[in-house]
Design brief:
Layout: E1 26-35, E2 41-52, E3 62-66, E4 105-109, H1 141-155, E5 162-166, H2 168-179, E6 187-190, H3 198-212, H4 230-244, H5 247-254, H6 271-286, H7 289-300, H8 311-315, E7 322-327, H9 335-344, E8 352-354, H10 362-365, H11 367-378
Parallel strand pairs: 3-4, 3-5, 5-6, 6-7, 7-8
Antiparallel strand pairs: 1-2, 2-4
């Protein structure tokens, strides 16, 4: 999936492909079509997911955890065959942890349109001849949540004890609570928003242009080519990663220092540039550029109030007890967006604040603080 080929060249995509090790993944079988909000339908939808713990006989202990843009279903567990990275919320899931698997049955799907086992641009088309590529349809968060509702049906879960998510996962958690209030028992929203802002769309739009400007993009139909749009995806990741962190943290960590013996005046890099290069290379090895495009466009389309009479009317549908939290140094999803959610959701009270120098990524890094929020909302 992300290994270097025999010629030393990266494959066209870092997506999980058929024949790769499954790891801990399970699949909700393909076959059920999904009617899409933008029109048409996606045939043969399949979701990859992972679970921890045991479902109670009455299915009352199920918790849904929803990942961010470049996350996946691997919330907990080591890296290994089938899983290029360790669990992204490892300290939160397991016996005695905030999501105590002796009590809770934790379910984490790979989002529809993703690239780690769920139907997405790198998946085969229904005829099996080639990948969807650039022909993959436009998705919204509502489409993705509708697919997750199908998964809940297949697992026999009528109502989640908790739906939790941060960033893009938080967008889907909002949609769960608005679209399926009767199926959302409690709600944890982290570093997210009720609707994508103009600035968020602007940052994302630049990333999309970087990918599409790569000559190896080929209109999204590169999955069977010798090379994928690695340069464009790497540029998109560099830009995104700057927005995920805070200026004080970058200054404290890197300042103006050059990278080792490199001299920036003579073609070398600053340490902060090397840091961004590192994160770009990591993402190229484990992700798919077309999935990045599909998911980013879905995030840009996020508006819980669309066709529902606006945000106030839409969020008034939420019946779940709700805890909303943001990161004090988050410049991409600033606290004002979480305060709006808390003000408009009937079951929410004040906005909780995660204190962190790490910016938006604080919801992934500050697991002790986030764990306390999980315990609070679960009672």
């Amino acid at each position: 999936m992300s290994a270097v080929t025999a010629t030393g060249q990266l494959p066209a995509t870092g997506a999980w492909r058929e024949g790769d090790p499954p790891g801990r993944r399970q699949w909700w079988p393909a076959g059920r079509p999904l009617r899409l909000e933008a029109g048409g339908e996606l045939p043969g939808v399949r979701l990859a997911f992972e679970t921890w713990g045991r479902l109670a006989p009455d299915a009352s202990n199920a918790v849904l955890v929803l990942h961010a843009l470049t996350g996946d279903s691997h919330v907990a567990g080591p890296a290994g065959p089938g899983h290029p990275t360790p669990g992204w919320w490892e300290p939160l899931v397991g016996p005695g942890r905030p999501l105590d698997t002796d009590r809770w049955f934790v379910v984490a799907p790979n989002v529809l349109g993703g690239c780690q086992g769920s139907t997405g641009p790198s998946s085969p088309r229904p005829d099996g001849r080639r990948a969807w590529g650039g022909a993959f349809p436009f998705l919204t968060q509502r489409d993705q949540v509708a697919a997750e509702a199908y998964l809940a049906d297949a697992l026999g879960i009528d109502r989640w004890a908790l739906v939790a998510g941060g960033s893009m996962g938080g967008m889907r958690a909002v949609e769960w609570a608005v679209s399926y209030p009767e199926r959302t028992g409690a709600l944890l929203l982290l570093a997210t928003t009720a609707a994508a802002s103009a600035e968020q769309i602007a940052w994302a739009g630049i990333q999309l242009r970087a990918i599409r400007a790569d000559p190896d993009w080929q209109g999204g139909d590169y999955h069977d080519a010798a090379r994928g749009p690695h340069t464009g995806l790497g540029l998109a990741r560099r830009l995104a990663h700057v927005t995920y962190r805070s200026e004080p943290e970058l200054t404290a960590r890197f300042g103006r220092s050059p990278q080792d013996a490199e001299h920036p005046w003579r073609g070398g890099r600053y340490r902060v540039e090397s840091y961004l290069d590192h994160h770009a290379e990591k993402l190229v090895r484990r992700f798919d550029a077309a999935s990045y495009v599909v998911l980013t466009e879905a995030m840009n389309a996020h508006d819980a109030g669309r066709s529902r009479g606006g945000l106030r009317s839409a969020l008034a549908r939420v019946t779940a007890p709700t805890l909303v939290a943001g990161v004090d140094s988050d410049r991409l999803y600033p606290l004002a967006q979480q305060e709006e959610l808390a003000a408009l959701i009937p079951g929410a009270d004040r906005t909780r604040v995660v204190r962190s120098p790490y910016g938006h990524d604080g919801f992934l890094i500050e697991t002790e603080q986030v764990g306390a929020l999980v315990r609070e909302v679960l009672g």
